[in-house]
């Protein structure tokens, strides 16, 4: 089951990076927020980083699932 989204993150990035994010999200039919979540989870998984005890991971959604 997917974790309830209650946190807000404001960030600044170069316009070129935002455009790359938009392109990646559009390619997978994801929102910008969902694409960031997927990228962060994939990065942490690749580096062996895990959530502290008691926190649930966000359920992975299929790339073919429209958002």
Explain the layout of strands and helices:
Blueprint: H1 15-27, H2 32-47
Helix pairs in contact: 1-2
What does this molecule look like?
The chain has helices at 15-27, 32-47. The chain has 67 residues and is an all-alpha fold. Helix 1 crosses helix 2 (32-47). It is globular, with a radius of gyration of 13 Å. The chain starts with 14 loop residues before the first helix and ends in a 20-residue tail after the last helix.
Gist of the model:
The chain has two helices and no strands. It has 67 residues and is mainly α. The protein starts with 14 loop residues before the first helix and ends in a 20-residue tail after the last helix.
List keywords for this structure.
67 residues; mainly alpha; globular; disordered C terminus
The oligomerization state is: single chain
Q: What's the main sheet like? A: none
Overall pLDDT, averaged?
Answer: 85
Helical stretch count? Answer: 2
Structural class, from helix and strand content? mainly alpha
Shape: globular
Helix content: 40-55%
């Amino acid at each position: 089951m997917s974790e309830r989204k209650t946190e807000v993150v404001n960030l600044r990035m170069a316009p070129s990076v935002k455009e790359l994010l938009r392109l990646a999200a559009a390619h997978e039919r994801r929102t910008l927020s969902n694409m960031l979540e997927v990228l962060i989870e994939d990065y942490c998984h690749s580096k062996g980083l895990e959530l502290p005890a008691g926190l649930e991971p966000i359920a992975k959604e299929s790339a073919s699932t429209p958002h």
